[in-house]
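re: ur msg from earlier - yeah i can do the S-adenosylmethionine complex, just paste it... oh wait u already did. ok heres what im feeding in:
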Amino acid sequence: MDQAERDQWIQDYYARRFAESDRLTTRSANGQIEFLRVQQLVSSRLRESSRVLDVGGATGVHARWLAADGHSVTLIDPVPEQVAAAATHIPDARALVGDARDLQVEDGSVDAVLLLGPLYHLQDRADRRRAWREAYRVLVPGGLVFGAGISRAAAALKIVLARSFHDLPANALLALLEDGTDVRAIPTEGFPGGHHHSAAELTDEAVAAGFTGVTTVGIEGPAGLGLEMLPPEDSLVSAGLTIADAATAAPPIADLSPHLLAIGTRPT
Ligand SMILES: C[S@@+](CC[C@H](N)C(=O)[O-])C[C@H]1O[C@@H](n2cnc3c(N)ncnc32)[C@H](O)[C@@H]1O
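and the outut:
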């Protein structure tokens, strides 16, 4: 599948097949941990009243709290149905149809860019580089980028746990682990995928785009995969958060987390 076909599939998946609005709030303990950890990792680094560009913002799961916290938020997503939902539910944010590879935003005009989605839906490194470079271009010097990836190690474990292992071509898991090829995209339904990262690769991409001080952390931490199968009960969410927070200080285990987050700065 080439990127143009995948982009088409992304439209269909997010507009009709999957309710992205529920993913982080009601589905599992891990979903809530992902939401709370992203909120904590981002909000602790933002200055008051920042201009935030939420690229791949879907229906506004993060734009909502960012706007409520007093930031000026512009959400960009390629799926018009999601953008319309965000515009309806978050009147304080601007919501636009657009693509991470070609942002219709002025140079040096925002304080922070969230890339929480595009990087794992772009299968070619050249496209991911365009997304990183666009984030760099629109940021002010000193501005922050937050780029999320799906961990290829955690994805491989998930495939085995889900027992779809038997259905995979023999070399598929190795391809996933070696270069991030998204084997889950082989049957053409379900999650559109694109590319899975290692923590080191996500860091490299951010550095190659010019960002400095880059650090990549696991979002949900090493318990996240197991907690994806458990309900969003307070005690589970709280335990998972404690583990994820502790693991932030141990970069070598970031790859065990379902999602990774690279945080970097456009140099002054
Ligand atoms: C799993 S959702 C993540 C939503 C939200 N940002 C979050 O962190 O929960 C991935 C999002 O990336 C968007 N996306 C896919 N390809 C994109 C691209 N080339 N540029 C911008 N957004 C894209 C999808 O439409 C979808 O809304």
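cool cool. Residues 3-17 form the longest helix (15 residues). ping me if u need the other ligands too
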